[in-house]
Amino acid sequence: MEQDRSSQSRPPHVLVFPLPLQGHINSMIKLAELLAIAGFKLTFLNSHHNHERLVKFNNIAAHSERYPGFQFKTITDGLPLNHPRSGSWFLDMFEDTMELKMKESLREVLVNSSPPVDCIIGDGFLGFALDVAKELGIPIIFFRTSSPCCFWVYHSIPDIIQAGELPINGSEDMDRLITTVPGMETYLRCRDLPTFCRKLDIEDSSMKLVVKQTRKSLQADALILNTAEELDGPILSQIRTKCPRVYAVGPLHAQLNTRLNAKHGESYDHFSNTLWEVDKSCIFWLNKQPNRSVIYVSFGSITSTSREQLVELWYGLLNSKTKFLLVVRPNSVIGKDGEGEDVVMELMEKSKDRGYIVNWAPQEAVLNHPAIGGFFTHNGWNSTLESIVAGVPMICWPQFADQHVNSRVVSEVWKIGLDMKDVCDSKIVEKMVNDVMVDRKEEFAKSASEMAKEDKEEIKMV
Ligand code: UDX
Fold first, then answer.
1. Which residue's alpha carbon is nearest to atom 13 within ligand 1?
2. Domain of residue 330, residue span
3. How close is the Cα of 364 to the center of ligand 1, in Å?
4. I need a surface site. Which of 75, 236, 335, 461 has the fewest CB within 10 A?
5. Which pLDDT score is estimated for 418?
């Protein structure tokens, strides 16, 4: 059933549909804002669960006031409202429970949309959106929120397997180079592949799902990536050999900030899109610290740590010569009943002179604060881009998804940080923090600020 969207005088109507996760909502809402500034009518399709939280912690109504034609619509994510949506829930629930219900709901929204939707920008992980778009005759662009490098590795997995470089044999050297990902032959090692590649089983369901969604992304009318040519030019050229219409439109948060500041001035109040309550008290604490003296430590919106890992990290931070601002998200420490929360309270009490701990920080503001000299990160793609744009060097502790590839690129290609992959030892934490914040401070600060400068030049030119 094709709707009538013949030439009209109204602005084109774009529906933006993210995966229901914080890291995906963040960049896709910024893309939606940029399109609204350019005059498009915008529908942002959120899950009921995430929308409730967006409304609770942000001034969401202001989007429609600021951008006439911007509206939120909500659909189910396929899970009961009281599902905890924490830990490894997403890949476990996606194919069997979520996909079917989200597909039905998307179809319903599109069929009933007035004015009709002229183009869908779907999260590239939601491959079913392509089937619905084709059925209804609506053009679709896929947007991948993860890094281009990782997109390219995901795409290459069948070739790596065919070349016999996967599976990784349990006892072998994890530093072995993977030579079958074009453009990455000189630096990609076994340990830099996504973690599901560590399984002996090449039929692993998570691996198959990710490869399937990635290859499907290339069947859309175009593919958008949150990066800049300056950052990822060589890998973008590789991806373009498979799909000619690939657009690098990022870093989106910087693109949006540049446009809003140019129009309204530097002090303009930017929207936040957070699913947790932001603790702004850390900014007051940072205001009292000397320039580039604090390391910011945060591992994004999904990662969990064990009690032991958190304590190991904390000792490393405490023994280093640097003050720290640490984010410990509610329920992100895995332990027996209440044990995780207890350990956070204990660390908070013991760190008073050396650090500050919050549940959720205003991350962009923190990274741009003059007191911050380094970022201890899990290398989620948003965090990596936010650090690059702020000119802050990184210590990388990747956990899953695109993060293992990202940390390799940060340390080995861009040389703006150190990679602590596969280790969680207080002595190593201490050494890396001292390297980035004290002993090799100028070297890292210089490379990070040069990269930020190049990036800003490109943003000005777009
Ligand atoms: C996930 C994946 O892990 C990531 O690899 C993928 O690229 C996107 O989806 P997440 O793990 O949450 O995202 O990491 P990241 O991409 O870094 O996104 C986290 C976002 O939350 C960032 O935009 C960051 O600014 C924000 N954040 C994080 C806060 O605002 N406050 C915090 O305290 C922590």
1. 23
2. 281-461
3. 11
4. 461
5. 98
